[in-house]
Amino acid sequence: MSDSEQPTVGPRHYQIPEGDDRERLTCPDCGFIAYENPRIVVGVVARAEDERILLCRRAIPPRIGYWTLPAGYMELGETAETGARREAWEEARAQLKLTGLLAVYSLARIHQVQLIYRAVLTDPHVEAGPESQSVGLFHYSELPWDELAFPTVRWALEQDHQAHMQGHGEAFANPTAEED
Amino acid sequence: MSDSEQPTVGPRHYQIPEGDDRERLTCPDCGFIAYENPRIVVGVVARAEDERILLCRRAIPPRIGYWTLPAGYMELGETAETGARREAWEEARAQLKLTGLLAVYSLARIHQVQLIYRAVLTDPHVEAGPESQSVGLFHYSELPWDELAFPTVRWALEQDHQAHMQGHGEAFANPTAEED
Ligand SMILES: [Zn+2]
Ligand SMILES: [Zn+2]
What we know:
CATH architecture of chain A: Alpha-Beta Complex
Organism (chains A, B): Spiribacter roseus
Keywords (chains A, B): Hydrolase
GO molecular function (chains A, B): hydrolase activity
Number of domains of chain A: 1
Helix content of chain A: 10-25%
Radius of gyration of chain A: 19 Å
CATH topology of chain A: Nucleoside Triphosphate Pyrophosphohydrolase
Bound molecules: zinc ion
Number of helices of chain A: 2
CATH class of chain A: Alpha Beta
Pfam families (chains A, B): NUDIX, Zn_ribbon_Nudix
Number of strands of chain A: 10
Oligomer: homodimer
Protein name (chains A, B): NUDIX hydrolase
């Protein structure tokens, strides 16, 4: 895309393709249709052995300096679970074992679906990766509620706490004998 | 994209952008980076009051004539739940109430994440939409196992049955007071 907001090559006009029922971003030169889809964010609520919860203080926009869960865009070629573990490593050098899916959040306005997993740290050592200013482990009662980066971080922390207190069934995933 | 496999305008070269750690599809003319992400499929295992399960016989490729669950790509601007209900309407004219998330399947090789919900039909009337040859309601013991379109359809039917027999906790979703 050029410096202007309006690209001058590639998909840049919205029109309804034949046989479709909604507008798609289309290239007027070659007819290529860029189907835009919601993006998947994978993240984790990871607890240490003493039940403290891992948070990262953001070193990148938006919300620099605020606390968030290890999370980021799922990449091609990985499973959601692999992506969640990758983000925990990239942002907090955390090694962990996933224990199930906590929640699915649909953020329709920003075109995101977040898949948040529960996890336990398998190594107590954590440290800031390149996208974090620092990392911290917090007991639930000591969480920095006023300095959380996004509403979904609060949702996940509260729901993880509820699951922790009351038990929580998990959604299924790929059958273990049949991982893709 | 032109008739050839290789597009000649727009993003068409793989290279690693500065500060990134993997190859992205980039336009050599203007530098536009097309971030490719896994696509989200939303679907449902919907049961009638008599516990029969709704399937659709596909009228479109791939796997024309085989049975599948109502499912399709999540669109921008909808939640996963709204998308699952939309697909049930489009493919089977089914009206339903979602009862929770059954499973998340990662199909890394085909760049898909499937979110499969459980549901009950709120109206017994169903009929084929434009992408279905026909629709059917099947007791679990009578399901057309040899004519299922995809492995994930079998996974979902088996896991829904397991959930139905043994109970099944659900993952959380957006808190109801805070839907996006
Ligand atoms: Zn074009
Ligand atoms: Zn370009």
